[in-house]
Amino acid sequence: MTNTVPNAARRHLSLPEDICRLAEQRFGERFESLESLLEFVLRELTENDAEVLDQTEQKILERRLRDLGYI
Fold first, then answer.
1. In angstroms, rounded to a whole number, what is the distance separating the alpha carbons of residues 43 and 46?
2. Does residue 40 sit within a domain?
3. Is residue 29 part of a domain?
4. What's the farthest any 2 CA atoms get from each other in the chain?
5. Would 54 be classed as within a structural domain?
6. What domain count does the chain have?
């Protein structure tokens, strides 16, 4: 599973060895590298946060429209 963006700027991170080893053991068959696993996880988290924010914004908008009598 690869979701990398070609030619995207990259950062180098320092992570605890034990966490990296456990992640590779647990998810190594599904991802070609630890980097691809972490990229997948971070993309999912940021997309899910955007969805939650959109839902929150929609509720605020609906509440405002209801208070104004449009809904």
1. 5
2. yes
3. no
4. 58
5. yes
6. 1
